[in-house]
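Posting here for the record, re: magnesium ion.
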Amino acid sequence: MHHLSLPHTDQNTQRVLTGDRATGQLHLGHFVGSLAQRVKLQHQYKQTILVADLQGLTDNGHNPNKVSSNILNVVADYLAVGIDPLKTTICLQSKIPALSELTMYYANLVSVARLQRNPTVKNEIANKAFGASIPAGFLTYPISQAADITAFNATLIPVGDDQLPMIEQTNEIVRKINAIAQEKILQECKPLLSKVARLPSTDGQSKMSKSMGNAILLDSTQKTISKAVKSMYTDPNHISIDMPGRIEGNVVFTYLDAFHSDEKFVANLKAQYQAGGLGDGKTKKILEDRLQDLIKPIREARANFIDDKSQLIAILKEGSERSQDEANQVLNNVKRGFGLNLF
Ligand code: ATP
Ligand code: MG
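Prediction output follows.
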């Protein structure tokens, strides 16, 4: 179902880093856009996953409970989908001070205009209706993300397509730092997009995301899943079964492409739908069955993990401690690059 085109040549030199804002539970968009890839990548590469609590604060500074209350939710979601803390380092952004320090160094190399041009930031600012009160931390979060990526010498970033502008900005910073240091102290990175790099919300209107309240969470009940699929946007002009229907923009087919493993079966279904004679009730039932099968084991595993908070904390603590040295070393190199190595 998930097509990975991994570079096979330099498996030992590639480092994987990615993360999620601690702003809510993870959803099907995370699963198909990034989590499923991470579960595979952890067997081949050294992988670090960051629970981005600081980044979560950039638009929740006045509502920090939203962030603090979701940190362990995110860790439970990781474990439930099969991320193994023995293979993947799971760490907490706020517990690695070098990340914030690196951000301050990089911030001197990025103009405000460049940040305002970042298409994802631009789009998010429009959605969040900050008005004239955009938090400085929010505008600059691409810089802090560059710190996260470079602090772990990451070269491969499994993300959804909303993250492409962040990776581009990170590489700009990397090139600037290396030019200043006159030495290749930082590595450039590249995105690893899955087959479904942007899962739409069930209404087809936007990207499924935590903060839009339009997500199918990975612990959804059977009833919630059923309701979400029944409400999905299809072809509004497909009003009787025998009429030909459109599959473009039809969320049910987008989800079947994303989550059904039998491509031939889905191709056949599409052909029938386009020819006429296949009703939305039937396609929705096929999708619902598939999503029920996918989510049930995740929901059940998650219920056990979230019950044991001390285990989740221990995993985060251990991963954060394990991450300090590497991040500190990168920070020291960057300081040295700026000539700040008097003692
Ligand atoms: P928020 O609304 O707080 O920004 P989010 O739902 O966008 O939350 P993030 O924590 O910002 O989630 O994203 C974590 C990772 O999941 C990123 O790599 C992002 O590209 C990916 N991702 C998030 N939503 C989707 C989606 N709908 N489709 C594909 N990938 C996604
Ligand atoms: Mg996001």
